[in-house]
Design goal:
Chain lengths: 504, 334
């Protein structure tokens, strides 16, 4: 009998163009809670999906109880006694709790569903977990924490010996997290082995005996929780050598363009304050769930502010719609360019001119010739690779689509550009081109807010870096003082550590 | 990298949905002409066709706008009824004494109906099919209420109002002139005005349109109001054509109109469609409706066949569109 209940060696997973996992390893002892940590994009979620049979690894072996296994799909994994609880709860909101627990393995006799038996069994499982709701409740009416409990009950109903939890505490309050700890410990004491993915140190300390770190799709190491310090762990998570930086050109900073004070949106973020100057690139960073996108979308008028003040050129302003923001001179390049940035069915040219249609209208009618000429000039300015301005946006690669989104913003008379993950899903060449454009824009006097999760990008391009964690600003670093370690420490700092402050 | 700023006209033409629809229509007409023994395309049949089905084409232009923003309006038959009926009632009671004023009044009533629908959909956040389903009953009920379930017959109407639908200008029936004028207006509106472009933007990708600074609610309200106004116009056309206003008039007109739009290549998901396609679609519907009896098809079969032809036309269009989408992907550099 092997020491480990689950063992993975040399796992490599390749997606078109990227290595999502590069020869990673992992092992799990029976009855232990093993934390898996790493930055955004380190490969944790992909790794879980390989274990569950959602993705098939190109290389490597997986041993269950010392015997090699190969899962073709999630059902195989479930039959072998492995269950996963994903980051985003995947349930059926209109069905009852019992139906959610037994979906896929309904209790049947002669093909007829045995409702009574199912409700009884579900209630028994829920009682074991000390749940404060019963099996007839409707899933959609439950809180996230309660829904997670249902997912755990589902795992138990499958007699799972290994339970994987992918960032289960991300959406929970402190009290709810503690309830989850209690359940997790109970399961562990009953002999279930648990893989616990989290960004939070407190989760790790509360539960895990060992921790494994991934970074950039690679295995970095496994450590005993008692034997490693926070600082060493952070170093393991970010300790990459930073090379190929595209530093922002030196630009003398001008006057303040935008200042926000104590922005709040109930349920999303609280007390967010920062300012940005002419010619400056302000980096806004944090881990998943830091609510950076929500903050900028609220500033841009897509969502409503609960309280707080916005100052534009020193004067307080109200922004209640994107068109308000654009009239003032704020442009937003959304993170999801395919959904919010572009109309994929349209040609490049029409996409570029959409924000400034007014300027091509000549007494009621559009001047298409002028429109196409302007679009052509803007598209060439950002070096879009295409044949004509009539090429559909959907026919472009990700990098070129992003360039079109940038060109779209350049057509208007903006003073401030907000770039939400400008290089996400973009190849290296296009990345360099986008950095170059951003540098030029700063030189021309644009103020830029750049949201990014990529350390090299944040460190290379930003004059100042604001770090957020779970809806609060946890610190602000100047270009000189910023290091990967400091940023990650702030991004993982709970607001209890730094009470709502702007300065760390 | 240098880009071109001139479109290839020929390629644009042959890849368009309208082009394939035109082919389908020519084939259909040839078939009908042959089966009817050469009598279908005679002057009298065509003039009947343009006169009797003009209101369908007019309604289809309004529906085009609604479908383009990703909505739908199944209340237009009822909007026609209430605007046509209230106009005729005021004519009967001697309040309206001028045919032009009658038309304008009917358009106004329709626009008010459309505005209400637009507000319910944009501000009330009710999905379009439900909102217009409800409004359809309200408008139809109001029609019976204001008329006291009575008809307005021909002798109570202004002679000029009735004659308008029967007379022609330059050999073309007046009602069809309305279609022509509206058609040209639609083409210009959709292609060469900023608001027309915004309509396509909202239907293609509402999220992107919002981020681009377009007020989605404003576009919706204006579009439903225009559609209502057009239904009001159709109500006046209908009552002057048949020289009578009845509470149950134009029941189910919306189905022919939606069919005309779909045949004309308008996507029910929004963002795709053109005035030219819709005109062709409306003509196709008119031809199908009129010709089936002429070519000697049994009355029982006429409806079923109409449905089959509609589905066939849509199917052809779907295939053409799929082909175009594949072509677009082939152009991607990998």
């Amino acid at each position: 009998m092997s020491e480990y209940i689950l063992e993975l060696n040399g796992i490599t997973k390749i997606f078109p163009g990227v290595k999502a996992l590069n020869k990673v390893q992992f092992n799990l002892r029976p009855g232990e809670v093993h934390a898996l940590m790493g930055e955004n994009g380190a490969g944790k979620s992909t790794f879980i999906k390989v274990i569950m049979g959602v993705h098939q690894a190109e290389e490597g072996e997986m041993l269950l109880d010392g015997k090699p296994v190969h899962f073709k799909n999630t059902r195989d994994a479930q039959k072998a006694g492995i269950a996963a609880i994903y980051q985003h709860v995947t349930s059926y909101p209109h069905l009852s709790v019992a139906e959610n627990i037994f979906v896929g393995h309904m209790k049947k006799k002669f093909g007829v569903i045995q409702w009574k038996e199912m409700y009884q069994e579900a209630d028994r499982l829920l009682q074991e977990l000390n749940a404060d709701f019963n099996s007839r409740s409707i899933m959609g009416n439950l809180s996230v924490a309660q829904q997670q409990m249902v997912e755990i009950a589902k795992a138990l109903s499958l007699n799972a010996r290994i339970i994987i939890m992918d960032e289960p505490t991300a959406a929970l309050t402190k009290r709810e997290s503690e309830e989850l700890y209690r359940i997790t410990r109970k399961l562990r004491d009953e002999g279930v082995a648990i893989i616990f993915i989290s960004h939070r140190f407190e989760d790790m300390y509360a539960l895990a005996s060992r921790v494994t770190v991934f970074r950039d799709a690679q295995y970095i190491g496994s450590y005993d929780v008692d034997g490693i310090t926070n600082a060493d762990l952070i170093k393991a998570m970010v300790g990459r050598e930073i090379k190929d930086l595209f530093p922002k050109p030196e630009v003398p900073l001008g006057e303040e363009v935008l200042r926000v004070e104590n922005l709040c949106r109930t349920g999303y973020f609280k007390d967010v304050s920062f300012q940005v100057h002419k010619g400056e690139i302000l980096g806004l960073t944090g881990l998943v769930g830091a609510r950076r996108t929500e903050v900028v979308q609220t500033i841009f008028g897509v969502e409503k502010l609960t309280s707080g003040k916005i100052f534009w050129n020193g004067k307080e302003v109200k922004i209640s719609s994107p068109s308000d923001a654009m009239k003032m001179g704020i442009g937003l390049l959304p993170e999801n360019r395919q959904i919010e940035g572009l109309i994929l069915d349209w040609g490049i040219g029409r996409n570029i001119t959409l924000t400034e249609l007014k300027s091509y209208v000549n007494k009621l009618f559009l001047n298409e010739k002028k429109e196409n000429e302007t679009a052509k000039n803007l598209a060439e300015r950002v070096d879009t690779k295409a044949v004509s301005v009539f090429d559909k946006a959907s026919s472009l690669s990700g990098g070129n689509q992003q360039k079109v989104v940038v060109a779209k913003a350049l057509g208007s008379d903006f003073k401030l550009l907000i770039l939400d993950e400008p290089t996400k899903g973009v190849d290296v060449g296009a990345k360099a081109a986008i950095y170059e454009i951003m540098g030029e824009l700063a030189q021309q006097g644009y103020a830029i807010i750049m949201i990014s999760s990529e350390m090299p990008e944040i460190l290379g391009m930003s004059d100042r870096i604001v770090v957020m964690c779970e809806g609060r600003v946890t610190g602000e670093l100047s270009r000189e003082e910023a290091t990967q370690e400091k940023i990650l420490a702030l991004a993982m700092a709970k607001h209890t550590v730094v009470e709502g402050g702007v300065q760390p | 990298m240098k880009l071109k700023a001139n479109a290839s006209k020929l390629r644009e033409l042959t890849q368009s949905r309208e082009f394939s629809l035109l082919l389908v229509m020519v084939l259909l007409c040839g078939l009908i002409q042959w089966r009817s023994g050469g009598v279908f395309f005679s002057g009298s049949v065509i003039s009947q066709l343009t006169q009797n089905y003009a209101y369908i084409a007019v309604l289809a232009f309004g529906m085009l706008l609604v479908l383009l923003i990703g909505g739908i309006d199944i209340s237009i038959g009822a909007t026609m009824a209430i605007s046509g009926m209230s106009t005729c009632l005021l004519m009967r009671d001697g309040v309206i004494t001028n045919p032009l004023l009658a038309y304008l009044f009917s358009i106004f009533i329709g626009a008010v109906c459309g505005l209400v629908i637009g507000l319910v959909i944009s501000k009330g956040k009710v999905i379009p099919i439900i909102a217009t389903l409800g409004m359809q009953y309200i408008f139809r009920g109001l029609t019976y209420f204001v008329s006291g379930t009575l008809w307005v017959s021909a002798d109570k109407m202004l002679p000029g109002y009735k004659n308008f639908a029967q007379s022609s200008f330059l050999g073309v029936n007046n009602l069809f002139w309305i279609v022509i004028v509206l058609f040209v207006a639609m083409i210009v509106f959709l292609k060469w005005t900023g608001f027309g472009r915004q309509i396509y933007a909202v239907g293609s990708n509402a999220d992107a349109a919002k981020i681009s600074g377009i007020s989605i609610d404003r576009v919706k309200i204006i579009v439903y109001t225009i559609n209502g106004a057009i239904a009001g116009l159709a109500g006046a056309m209908y009552t002057s054509l048949y020289a009578s206003a009845q509470g149950n008039m134009a029941t189910g007109a919306e189905m022919d109109v939606i069919a005309a739009c779909v045949i004309g290549g308008v996507s029910l998901n929004g963002g795709q469609g053109s005035a030219f396609g819709v005109l062709l679609g409306a003509i196709t519907i008119a031809i199908i409706s009129k010709s089936l009896s002429l070519v000697g098809i049994d009355a029982f079969w006429q409806r079923a066949l109409k449905g089959a032809v509609i589905l066939l036309a849509v199917l052809v269009n779907v295939l053409v569109q799929r082909n175009a989408a594949r072509k677009a992907l082939e152009g991607r550099e990998i």
